[in-house]
Amino acid sequence: MSISKNTRDREFDKFRGSEKPETRVAVEVENTNPIPVEFSQGISTNVYGDVTAIAIGASVDVVSYTVPVGKVFVLNFAEGSGCSVSEYSVLVNSAVITKRRTAHGNYDFVSPFGGAEFVAGSVIKINVSNTSGKINEYDCKLVGSIKDA
Predict the structure, then answer these.
(1) 5 lies in some domain
(2) CATH of the domain at 98
(3) Percent of the residues in the chain that have a pLDDT greater than 90, as a whole number
């Protein structure tokens, strides 16, 4: 997130005050292991997948998630990125629920789901079709949370 220079300067002046010397704080984080975070809607879940060297005209499931027994998956959004023009489909139990096409200048897609809930056994996938004239690579993720049914 970026803020305008004027806002940043005002916030700095509020922190610094007119008579206090400039203060800088450095924070270093060494733990790179993911930490599950409990929200009111459940445990935050980020399902990631990537593929390389997808042939021209080919279609592939980049990421797939099966909701565990006794759980509900709350999907906030699906997103993906590639190297060229492509077609992204989000499927639930093999049925397409949304489709996005990327174009030159923007090879990313984001599809918000606003907390759609999927029951145990549901299979959620992001499938990508390489519609460009070259071999491509892709990365996709499903972002949401898991809670007890």
Answers:
(1) no
(2) 2.60.120
(3) 44
